[in-house]
Amino acid sequence: MKNSRSNKELLLKLKTGDRIAFYNIYERYCKRLYGFVFRYIKVEAEAEEIVQEVFVKIWESREKLDTFSSFESFIFTIAYNSSISQLRKKLSEKKYLEYLGSIQTVQSSPKVIDELQYKELDGKLKSLLNKLTPRQKEIFKLSREDGFSHEEIAKQLDISVNTVKKHMVNTLSFLKKHLDNGLTTSVLFCVFFLP
To answer: What confidence tens digit (pLDDT) does each residue in 120-136 have?
Structure first.
């Protein structure tokens, strides 16, 4: 049965905490509010939630309700503001997720690129090392792979430190000349192969 009492009558009762008056207002507006909110939100569950929030706000602020102004305008304004707030929240969540995705991409891409470039550089290096004289190859291996100092290599091979240095200078010069001159390759070359 439809309640024929005016909004003003119901609101006066609602202000005193009358739950029946609140229920009557709910029955009067819930479907229209839902339709209004759904036009913005497009998700049934979220639209229902917003409508519930609107009525919770009305109940919580019942004592402050203005019975002389348009209640309809008031309730639809609350619904509109809640809908816009929900849309902004969804938009910021989407932007945040996109931001997280972009950070992840930015952080993981260089690793992949560096790995590929390192493997490529390592492959080229091995190919070039095979073109060195046996002595140059031996000194380079002792220096770069085994980590020996020039003095230790000289002692082990029974040659002078200057001879070791000369072989290393010639080897590194040969390698750098035959590797790509790109910035990344140069940086990797310096990091991995220079003293």
So the answer is: 666 777 788 888 899 98
pLDDT tens digits for 84-103?
888 888 777 777 567 566 65
Sorted by sequence, the CB contacts under 8 Å of residue 104 that are 6+ apart come out as none
Q: How far is CA 136 from the centre of its chain?
A: 49
Cβ atoms within 10 A of the Cβ of 123, count?
Answer: 10
- Quote the Cα angle for 167-149-164, to 5°: 20
**CA distances, 193 to each of 109, 112, 140, 190 (Å):** 24, 20, 10, 6
Q: Round to whole Å and give the CA distance between 178 and 125.
A: 9
> Within a 10 A sphere around the Cβ of 70, how many other Cβ atoms?
11
Q: How far is CA 72 from CA 7, 30, 47, in A?
A: 9, 12, 18
